[in-house]
Amino acid sequence: MIRFILSDLRRLWAGSLVVVLLVALATALGVCVVLQERALRLGSARAADKFDLVIGAGGSETQLVLSSVFLQPSPLPLMPGEVLGRLAADPRVDWAAPIGFGDSFSGYPIIGTTTMLAQNLSGGLAEGKIFAREGEAVIGAAVKLSLGGEIKPMHGSLEEGGETHTELVYHIAGRLRPTGTAWDRAILVPIQAVWHIHGMEAEEHAGDGEHEHEAASGTDSAEHDHEHEKAGADHDGHEHHGEADPDAALDESWTAGAPGLPAILVKPKTIADAYKLRQDYRSGNTVAVFPGEVLTNLYATLGDAKQILVAVASGAQALVAASLVLVTVIHIGQRRRQIGALRAFGAPRSAIFGIVWLEFFFLVAVGIALGFALGYAAALTLSGMFSQTSGITMPVGFAREDAALAAVLLAFATILAALPAVLAYRQSPAQALRA
């Protein structure tokens, strides 16, 4: 029987190939959706695990996490700099690191922060040293620059028509170890250097580069403008009028007079301290969030999107199943003489049923296996592209529930293969030979 089936498949290889490809593509669509959604969940969750608590000004909690944890560019409201001073003196805080963004270089975001965050973000450096002066920088593991290289910060991005700062050129002092987060594509520089090149004095309580226009509209900002900016050196509403000394030593002793900040990353000493800090800073002008909680809300939205995509994939699979039924019915009609001849030579009905069923089930099973392979390859490709642009590692892999999906598809293939087998089983040899 097996030799007969293999011979039949070789003779009808073109039609068999079409059946396998149809099943494979329909299966791959559903598998890719499941694997990609799972990879996105795991990757974002692992990235958020690096940060215990994020504090920012009142506003969107989701945007605060997206900007501070995943480094998605977006203007954030500023909170008073005194919040940083209070956190630095709070006995419940292990360390608090301000972050400021808005500048970039060669497509990599430049993040103003502290040596404490740079040391703790990846558990050490892969090479070089932590920045110790305003003119030094530390790059993420995925930044394709070399130690000692120059970084000329640009306000905004090249696509947005950003303006290159002339106040300071950073030199790369070290490279972080891989973290699997968006920070692997970031350039870390001293926060005080960001403040200085944007003309932000401690008493101004102004924003960082992304929000400088807000400070410029304040009543006291004119007191700190240079004469050439008063004359009209203004690009896109952002005035860059600061001065920075690349050899200046860092001063990371925070006071109540620190400039305004978009976000502060906080490492509480204990879990209980984390909840207390979140409660304390969820009132007034600030909001404190656990990134994991915000992601839970995003996952709910992703779950709805996943259901829609799974429904689309299921619809495609149903259409493929219907087309296969039509093809096999036509195919059985074309093989009536062959089936009649087998019956005339003494082949029992059960043998005819087994031949047709095994042949069709084999094609569908091969298509399902190929579909899983294609779906995995597609999810791996998409995750690689996303990781390259975002820096977030997207782990693609099969889980236990995927075996249940394969079992369901094979069970469906068993039922589907029975339809042409029943048609062949019911054919009369005399009628088949006369056809």
Can you tell me about this structure?
The chain is of the alpha+beta class and 435 residues long. It is 51% helix and 14% strand. The chain is built from 14 helices and 12 strands. Strands 1, 2, 3, 4, 5, 6, 7, 8, 9, 10, 11 and 12 form a 12-stranded mixed β-sheet that branches. Strand 7 and strand 8 form a beta hairpin. Helix 1 crosses helix 12. The chain starts with a helix and ends with a helix. About 9% of the residues have low confidence.
Major beta sheet summary: 12 strands, mixed
**Helix proportion of residues, in percent?**
40-55%
Structural class: alpha+beta
Terminal residue distance? 25 Å
Question: Got a strand count?
Answer: 12
Which parts are unreliable, with pLDDT below 50 for 5 consecutive residues or more?
203-241
Shape: elongated
- The radius of gyration over CA amounts to 32 Å
List the helices and strands and how they pair.
Blueprint: H1 2-11, H2 13-48, E1 53-57, H3 61-68, H4 82-89, E2 93-105, E3 108-113, H5 115-121, E4 125-128, E5 136-139, E6 150-151, E7 154-155, E8 163-164, E9 170-176, E10 187-190, H6 191-197, H7 212-216, H8 227-230, E11 263-268, H9 271-280, E12 286-289, H10 291-334, H11 336-344, H12 349-390, H13 400-426, H14 429-434
Parallel strand pairs: 3-10, 5-9
Antiparallel strand pairs: 1-11, 1-12, 2-3, 2-7, 2-11, 4-9, 5-10, 6-9, 7-8
